Amino acid sequence: MAERLQAPRGTFDVLPEEGELRLALHAAAGDLLGRAGYGYFESPVFEDTEVFARGVGQSTDIVQKEMFTFEDKAGRSLTLRPEATAGVCRAYAEHGMHKLPQPVKLWFWGPFFRHEAPQAGRFRQFTQVDAEALGSDDPSLDAELILLLAELLERARARDVRLRLSSLGDAAARESYGVELKAYLREHEGELSEEVRARIDANPLRAFDADHPGTRRVMEGAPLLLDRLAPADAEHFAGVRALLDSAGLAYELDPKLVRGLDYYTRTVFEFESGRLGAQNALGGGGRYDGLVEQLGGPPTPGVGWAAGIERILLASDLAVAGRAKVFVSWTGEAATAFAIARAVRARGGHAEMEQAGRSLKGQLKQADRIGATHVVLVGEGLEVKDMASGEQRPVASVDEAVEAVTP
Ligand code: AMP
């Protein structure tokens, strides 16, 4: 026998049982986002590497070490998309979408690729649903998007969900805050853990995550970026919060929420589930008011989120309701059974027929296995069996059989 092959490390096949749930989630996303004016969008699975290098940011983990990058035959560098927003902004600029009525609202679903160490809930190919609104900085868009993701998670029956929310302000505020935080950490260097001390310059925000008791004590008094926002950014954030409050959505203000992408400005948020382990983020996003311009388009505000389908399903109790099914059993000629199955489907029903040469007994077992509500038996004559009551009766014609098994 030839060697058995496997899907690459960190990837997976979607088998039909999970496939049903994914289709249900896709339908829920399309319904929810479509009714809020988000149009379905797709970009290519790979882009010029430049889109992500410039869009996501050279200093991020994604660009530094997680991209699947390759050269095409002409020597151009291409990258499998690690996230959606940079491609959306590239497309917005490329198609002159700034000339359309604003905001332009898009939603998106598809595979994404990151070369990460695989673990529970972390894959090298995963699926994201994504929603973006470009061309307006109105706080109602931030609030609308957050509420839409909350509703999608609710429809997905994701359990034990928490929302963390913050604002990063603008680049100037972040920069002067960084200087202030580093100075504060240096002032208290003696009380900090060695690890935090070593990273004061590289990543001072990490100090907020430390478990070390001394560091935690120091961080209780640390300056917070949220208290240092420019007046316009503070006002914008207050606007977002007021709308979330009026909608009754609970959230936790988390001034140390930082996301792994460089392009965020103002609002940032993340939904997590306590049902998940270390990889507990279901989805998140924020505002990226400079990104379209960075990718060669006109200055354009934007806000959006991405959520991981595999993570949502891991955290959810979603079950798809069974549908009424008909099984067409036959002995002799296939044609009548084939016609009945097609007629049931044409009337909107679900029909399967015997296609593996089973005995009559085996066929009835198969009908049971697929959860058939009715069986049509095609033999010398035609009969219809109700699987719940066990009642079986003859019918005079194909039409009568079809009539009897379709609601
Ligand atoms: P991010 O843009 O990194 O915040 O990703 C958005 C969402 O995509 C996360 O909250 C996860 O649910 C999901 N996600 C990101 N990376 C992975 C991965 N490697 N495997 C599975 N899901 C992921």
Key descriptive features of the protein:
about 400 residues; 5-stranded mixed beta sheet; elongated; alpha+beta; binds adenosine monophosphate; BirA Bifunctional Protein, domain 2; 8-stranded mixed beta sheet
Write up what this structure looks like.
The chain has two domains: 16-170 and 230-315, 2-Layer Sandwich (BirA Bifunctional Protein, domain 2); 325-405, 3-Layer(aba) Sandwich (Rossmann fold), CATH 3.40.50. Helix content is 36%, strand content 22%. It has helices spanning 16-34, 49-55, 61-66, 85-94, 139-155, 171-187, 194-198, 213-220, 231-246, 291-294, 309-314, 335-346, 360-369, 398-405, and strands at 39-40, 46-48, 69-71, 77-80, 104-113, 125-134, 161-167, 252-253, 265-273, 281-287, 302-308, 325-330, 350-353, 374-378, 382-386, 392-395. An eight-stranded mixed β-sheet has the order 1-5-6-11-10-9-7-8, sandwiched between helices. A five-stranded mixed β-sheet has the order 13-12-14-15-16, sandwiched between helices. A hairpin with a 5-residue loop joins strand 15 (382-386) and strand 16 (392-395). Helix 1 runs antiparallel to helix 5. Bound molecules: adenosine monophosphate (AMP). Adenosine monophosphate (AMP) binds next to strand 6, strand 10, strand 11 and helix 11. Adenosine monophosphate binds at residues 83, 114, 116, 121-123, 126, 128, 260, 281-284, 306-308, 310-311.
CATH superfamily of the largest domain: Bira Bifunctional Protein, Domain 2
Residue fraction in strands: 15-25%
Assigned CATH architecture of the largest domain: 2-Layer Sandwich
Q: Strand count, sense and closure of the main sheet? A: 8 strands, mixed
Q: Between the first and last Cα atoms, what is the distance in angstroms? A: 49 Å
Overall structural class, as computed from helix and strand content, comes to: alpha+beta
Tell me the Rg in angstroms: 27 Å
SSE run: HEEHHEEHEEHEHHHHEEEHEHEHEHEEEH
